Structures are given as structure tokens and as C-alpha cells.
């Protein structure tokens, strides 16, 4: 009976990783659509959203069924609870990708001024956080997950710098307001991707070590 239960846990993990792969690909495509103005990539992001949403519901249903029928304890219980929370964060990473893709498409309708915000670098940092948080989940590595938490400071700092630079442009060059606002929102979406990666890392720590590090300092 427990063999079947642990097979179901493995299946739950595999489904979540497939969904995470779709969300990670969506972020990559959305930021590439912004960088290259290749809006066929944005279309692929929009098309992937229903599949991500459907997988989120399926994973939740399976997790709740295991909780109800197997009454797991200790690390198995923490694993299922962590999966439910990670599942929600992965779906929201997909939502952020859709938002970025939509802004990239909207920017294509306007001139393309040279704004002083390095969106590709910010995107690269946010994607690195997502990849590392998911790798820590794959390897059940709490120390790797803790290293993700320290990466969030750089993403937050870049987003804050983008806000300062873009609000100054809006003040001095109001004709650039539409494009500056789009870049501001994209930067904010990427900062949120970093937040979701942080949440995933915190859930891995909870699963592996039983420590709830949400809303706490690193020391």
C-alpha cells in the first residue's frame, strides 16, 4: 500500500516539474519577445497559459486526494503541502510571463526609444532564481534553496533602480511615458518572478528541514 503511495508522490513531483518547465519556457519566450520584438514568441506564451492552468488544477486535485485518502505524516505530509504551495507559485510565474508578453506586444506599436533599464539582465537573474529553486526541489537540497533567498536582493535592487530611472524619464520626457510605463511594468513582473522563486525555495526548506522561513530574516 505504501509503495503505491510513494509512487503517487513521485508522480506528483513529475507533474509539477513538467508544469514548471512550461512556465520557465514562457518567461524565456516573453522576455525574448521583448528583446527581439518577435511577437510570434508572445503568441506562444499566450497559447501555453491554458495548459499551465489546467495542470495546476490537476496537481492540486491529486495532492488533495492523497491528503484525504493516505493521511500522510511528517516529511510526506510536508512534501504534499509544499507541492500545493509551489504549484500555485509556478502558475503565477506563467501569469507573469503572459503579462510581459502582452507588454512586449504593446510596445511594438510605438517607437523604440533607448531606455536606461537592462531588462535582459533582470530577466536573466529572475530566470536563474526560478531554475535554482526548482533544482533544489528536484534534489531536495535545502542549502541550495537557501542560496536562492540571497539572490532576491539583486533582483529587488535592479527593479528599484528601474523605477527611479523610468520615473525620471517620465518627468523629463513625457512623450516617452507609454514606453517607459511598459518597461516599468515588465521590470515589476520580473521582480515578482523572483518573489515566486523565493517562495518555492522557502517551501523546499520547509519540506526538507521542517523549518518555516517565510517572513523571517536569513540569520
TrEMBL record:
<dbReference type="InterPro" id="IPR026022">
    <property type="entry name" value="PhoU_dom"/>
</dbReference>
<dbReference type="InterPro" id="IPR038078">
    <property type="entry name" value="PhoU-like_sf"/>
</dbReference>
<keyword id="KW-0813">Transport</keyword>
<protein>
    <recommendedName>
        <fullName>Phosphate-specific transport system accessory protein PhoU</fullName>
    </recommendedName>
</protein>
<comment type="subunit">
    <text>Homodimer.</text>
</comment>
<comment type="function">
    <text>Plays a role in the regulation of phosphate uptake.</text>
</comment>
<feature type="domain" description="PhoU">
    <location>
        <begin position="18"/>
        <end position="103"/>
    </location>
</feature>
<dbReference type="Pfam" id="PF01895">
    <property type="entry name" value="PhoU"/>
</dbReference>
<dbReference type="InterPro" id="IPR028366">
    <property type="entry name" value="PhoU"/>
</dbReference>
<keyword id="KW-0963">Cytoplasm</keyword>
<keyword id="KW-0592">Phosphate transport</keyword>
<feature type="domain" description="PhoU">
    <location>
        <begin position="119"/>
        <end position="204"/>
    </location>
</feature>
<comment type="similarity">
    <text>Belongs to the PhoU family.</text>
</comment>
Amino acid at each position: 500500500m505504501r509503495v503505491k503511495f510513494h509512487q503517487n508522490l513521485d508522480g506528483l513531483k513529475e507533474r509539477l516539474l513538467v508544469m514548471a518547465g512550461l512556465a520557465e519556457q514562457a518567461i524565456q519566450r516573453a522576455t525574448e519577445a521583448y528583446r527581439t520584438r518577435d511577437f510570434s514568441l508572445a503568441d506562444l506564451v499566450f497559447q501555453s497559459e491554458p495548459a499551465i492552468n489546467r495542470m495546476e488544477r490537476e496537481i492540486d486535485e491529486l495532492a488533495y486526494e492523497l491528503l484525504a485518502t493516505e493521511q500522510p505524516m511528517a516529511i510526506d505530509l510536508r512534501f504534499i503541502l509544499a507541492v500545493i504551495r509551489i504549484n500555485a507559485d509556478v502558475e503565477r510565474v506563467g501569469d507573469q510571463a503572459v503579462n510581459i508578453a502582452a507588454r512586449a506586444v504593446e510596445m511594438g506599436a510605438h517607437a523604440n526609444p533607448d531606455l536606461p533599464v537592462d531588462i535582459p539582465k533582470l530577466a536573466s537573474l529572475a530566470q536563474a532564481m526560478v531554475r535554482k529553486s526548482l533544482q533544489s526541489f528536484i534534489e531536495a537540497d535545502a542549502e541550495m534553496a537557501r542560496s536562492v533567498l540571497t539572490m532576491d536582493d539583486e533582483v529587488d535592487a535592479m527593479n528599484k533602480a528601474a523605477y527611479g530611472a523610468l520615473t525620471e524619464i517620465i518627468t523629463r520626457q513625457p512623450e516617452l511615458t507609454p514606453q517607459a510605463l511598459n518597461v516599468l511594468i515588465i521590470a515589476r513582473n520580473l521582480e515578482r518572478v523572483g518573489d515566486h522563486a523565493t517562495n518555492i525555495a522557502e517551501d523546499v526548506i520547509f519540506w526538507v528541514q521542517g523549518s518555516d522561513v517565510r517572513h523571517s530574516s536569513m540569520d
